[in-house]
Amino acid sequence: MPPYFFDITTVGEEEYKAWFSLMSEERKEKCRRIVSENGKKSCIAADHLARSILAKELDCSEEEIEIKITDSGKPYLEGNPLYFSVSHSDVIVACVCGDTPVGIDIELNRPVMAAAQERICTPEEWDYLSEPTSESERCLRFFELWTKKEAIFKMDGILPRKDREIPALHPETLGIKVTTEKMGKYTLSVAELICD
């Protein structure tokens, strides 16, 4: 279950228009409400990336893929055994697909206020975050925790969401495996069910 990536700066306007035309009305409306140009392009590219991966997996055309959205915003295929998840940050879009529920999150590593860090962490995670003496290492650890929590949440997308209750350091207690990697200036986590 490898993640797929896409850089939104590598695509021309005509391609974005073509991809936009394939989106559901619901997704188009969501995209229209996004203010930033990069945000709109990321929304369109995420839909396209998921659609192209799903079409390949299901051996059908991209036009046949109908992506629906739950009330909490999680994309899914109605009546289909494939699960997928998308994420975007800065100019990178990521997607993962699998036979069991999956979640993915990618984040641009950047400074985050300590109050925000403390708000999402359990006491054990806060201790883990507080260990490094360098601010850059602390930032990397924060995005490791944050992307793990987001990927776990994106597996089911059930609201209300309470970040402190998602055990990023011990996801196996939920029957979930999370892999995290640093990719240049980004951190990526993928969550999947542990299968016996």
Please characterize this protein's 3D structure.
- This protein is an alpha+beta fold.
- The protein has six helices and eight strands, in the order E-H-H-H-E-E-E-E-E-H-H-H-E-E.
- It has helices spanning 13-22, 25-33, 37-58, 114-120, 123-130, 135-156; strands spanning 4-7, 67-69, 75-77, 83-89, 92-98, 102-108, 176-183, 186-193.
- Helix 5 (123-130) packs antiparallel against helix 6.
- The longest helix is centred in the first third of the chain and has 22 residues, at 37-58.
- The radius of gyration is 17 Å and the shape is globular.
- The mean pLDDT is 89.
Write out key terms for the chains shown.
Ribosomal Protein L22, Chain A, 3-stranded antiparallel sheet, alpha+beta, 6 helices, 196 residues, single chain, 8 strands
Question: How would you write the strand order of the largest sheet?
Answer: 1-5-4
Largest sheet: 3 strands, antiparallel
Enumerate how many helices there are, as a single number: 6
Return residue spans where pLDDT drops below 50 for at least 5 consecutive residues: none
Any idea what the CATH superfamily of the largest domain is called?
4'-phosphopantetheinyl transferase domain
**CATH class designation of the largest domain:** Alpha Beta
- Which structural class should the secondary elements be placed in? alpha+beta
What general form does the structure show?
globular
The separation of the N and C termini measures 16 Å
Residue share in helix:
25-40%
Order of helices and strands: EHHHEEEEEHHHEE
Arithmetic mean pLDDT:
89
Radius of gyration: 17 Å
What's the structural domain tally? 2
- The CATH architecture of the largest domain is Alpha-Beta Complex
Portion of residues in beta strands equals 15-25%
